[in-house]
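User: I'm new to structure prediction. If I give you an amino acid sequence, what do you actually give back? Let's try with this one:
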Amino acid sequence: MAYTVSSETIRSRAALGYLAAGVTVLIWASWLIVTRHSASIHLGTIELGLCRFGIPALALAPVWWRHGILPRGVPLHVLAVMVLGSGALFFQVTAHGIHSAEAGFSGVLLGGAMPFATAVIGILIFRNRLDGARYLGLAAIFCGSSMLLLPHVLSGGSDWSGALMILAGAALWGSYTHAFRQSDLPPLHASAIIAFWSFVIHLVLAAVYGVDFSQVSLSESGLQLLSQGVLSGLVATFTYGVAVRSLGGIQAAAFTALTPVLAVLGGATVLGEQPGPSVFVATAFTCIGVLLSTGLLSRK
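Assistant: Good question. You get back a string of structure tokens that encode the predicted 3D arrangement of the chain. For your 300 residues, that looks like this:
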């Protein structure tokens, strides 16, 4: 028996997908801005990590409790790369980088370096083959990142240490991406495992180095809990899944090209940053590169 889907249903599904993708990139961009803002209120990255992973670990407790925190069939080294590559280590490295660099700079560099690192790891280790459009996208990302990094390399600017952290975070994310594909875990179960172990790691860090929320106002703490834990930790995970299901992986991933733009605009309007012409040019190159690297414009 054949089933047909009406054009109205298709349009509704597409509209839902576009809405979900838009919400996702807004949350990602706002996370960069709020994380950068936390440096001005002297809120450390360990405190931020507790906010980021504590809420998802609690909310997804039924998932990791039922399916396990060490799933059978998944090698421990693959699981470790997943947890560190998108969880505790990734967060600590990128948060330190964002604290050391402007939100716009961080957004453009991280937004481009993550798909670039993922593609390079796939080519070098897993022998992935890319078409010309994707290679062109990677070249555009490289040009955009170089425009950001070269002035700081030549001048020894204060953003250099932050840039290294952000690039390291991108490499971790690329490693996570391939490890997640190898794990064959459902996305929700993977998210629950990553949240659980990352929260445990941050509890250990808090016990060793200590935490201090006493100098942070209740409103500021609430902002971080909302942005880090609720929006980034839970809502964005859900909305991106809806976008992938409604639009397909390639179109949903193409929306990530908007994140650098929103980070630059948000940094300028919310944090009072003053990005120079090189940042805007680098943003254009990076956005075009990310769009091409998704394969949206490829022939196949």
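You can read the tokens as a compact description of the fold. Here is one thing that stands out. The mean pLDDT is 90.
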